[in-house]
Amino acid sequence: MQDPKLEIQMLHDRVMVKADGNGERRSTAGIVIPATAEVAKRLVWGEVFGVGNHVRTVKVGDRVLFARDDQYEVEVQGASYLVLRERELHAVATERTEHGTGLYL
User: Fold this and answer.
1) Which of 12, 26, 79, 103 places its Cα 20 to 30 Å from the Cα of 5?
2) Running DSSP on this structure, what letter comes out for residue 21?
3) 48 pLDDT higher than 90
């Protein structure tokens, strides 16, 4: 007997995010910098895949900035996602902002 597919619904103020990349990054000169070479805590961008019913400032499809430290990781259908609280997000990149920084991705 095959298990039925169940839809995931995030609860309360939780946000499910898929982080961009694997932690490596490139300098402006094209040099690859491994994730293990980090000196300071680094924030990363990711895409929102699910939001709880108490989340007010982000929606599915938004790109958000957050710290990878101390987040909960979950695997769904072979892909890894992070689960965090809305208050742990540092910024959101969206077309619908009212009070932006003037910077664009």
Assistant:
1) 12
2) S
3) yes
Radius of gyration of the chain (CA): 16
Q: What is the pLDDT of residue 7?
A: 79
Q: Which of 61, 71, 50, 72 is nearest to 96 (CA)?
A: 61
Question: What is d(CA 77, CA 8) in angstroms, rounded to the nearest whole number?
Answer: 12
* Spatial distance between the Cα atoms of 23 and 100, rounded to a whole number of angstroms: 26
The identity of residue 80, as a single letter, is S
pLDDT at position 37 over 60: no
